Amino acid sequence: MKLNFYRVAAKSNAKGLAPVWCRITHNNNRANISLEIFIEPGQWDNKTQRVIFHPLADNYNNAIVQLQARAFDAYQTLKRKNSPITADAIKQFTTAQTEAVTFIQVIEQYKAMKEAETKAKTITTKAGTKTIAPVITVSTYKGISHKAGNMIKFLRSIKKSNLLISELRPDILDKYRYWLQNTLGSNSHQYANKCLYLWQGIERYAYGLGYIDRLNLLTYTVAKGFAETYDEVPHVTEIELQRIINYTPGNITMQKVKDLFLLQCFTGMAYVDSQLYSDELIHTIEGIEILKYYRAKLRKQKALATPLLFADVKEITARYNGKAPKLPNQTYNEWLKILQAACSIDTLLTSHVGRKTFGMRMLNTFGFKMEEVSRMLGHSSVKMTEKVYAKVTIERVLTAAYSNNIAA
After folding, report:
1. Helix (H, G, I), strand (E, B) or coil at 344
2. Structural contact between residues 216 and 164, judged by C-beta atoms closer than 8 angstroms
3. What are 154-174's pLDDT values in tens digits?
4. Across the beta sheet with 288-294, what order do the strands follow?
5. Is the pLDDT of residue 258 over 90?
6. Under 8 Å CB-to-CB from 282, ≥6 apart: which residues?
7. Which of 272, 283, 297, 405 is deepest in the core (most CB within 10 A)?
């Protein structure tokens, strides 16, 4: 038996990425196994049959070694059993060996891979040493880890801790959606979709490692009945915001929580971005101060905040040497509940409500256009802004009434 790993250039996609296959050859008989690894031409070494110059080279090469070991083990097993040895038989036995792997085991492996992607890598090229930036941010990994943790909790709650990766079926996602709604109280269509993509992503990862030979969750979509209506964007009203501004904290931690929440309300920054805030991000363009920064979530997308509230922002940051108050996300969210109670806020305060409040204020209080608010928030498209912020609030109706002199 001979194994040959190679990049199939003829299967290149629109981005020029081609898959890596394993060809099993025995007695002039061949069978192919796809590793679900897609790379550029310069990222494959034909001599060593390994991935090079790629940020995930270690993970991909590990998958190649694992598949190689399983194939040789399959060959030896067939030989011991005196079974007919063909390339197809070796392929089938190689993929069948992985059926004993549980889904929870694959989740843990996937988390470990994603954690490795948060670290920069140094590689040696012909031009010298090169440092490759992390593939994902730490905050993105934390989101994945949190959702993965919920998946494990769900499987244990339905007594499916030993569910095999080969036993995954679409109906389990219906049960998971029900669990999200009734156990976690999550009715967010967006969050449900993110969870769905993670289930599918982990299944594709298992497929790439050869644990399964087909994708069962690929065509599943979140039912429309589960969709969230965006009529109620979680935000604080102008009256509630004024209560927070006027509130006098009783200790240093509460002062930081209040200041950080107001900074989000005044700039539209997400929590992860706010922790990197500095007054140096404020630039003067034609006499107008504009906040410019790269969103951690999108990396390349610049966000520009309105100049209307920078006096309030600088008043806050002056207490922290021109920066935002630093708070761990969990601590911040816990103390926001105390702030909510102290200021009699109806909306459940979380680290994202400040950003939502900014978006709603820009649209409904200050009257900016949707595309302008989309740019301020750093959304990747106006459609995203329209989807979330399309609601016309009573505040906007009243503002329009007064501006047109039709109020009583």
Report:
1. coil
2. no
3. 999 888 888 888 888 888 888
4. 282-285, 288-294, 302-305
5. yes
6. 289, 290, 291, 310
7. 272
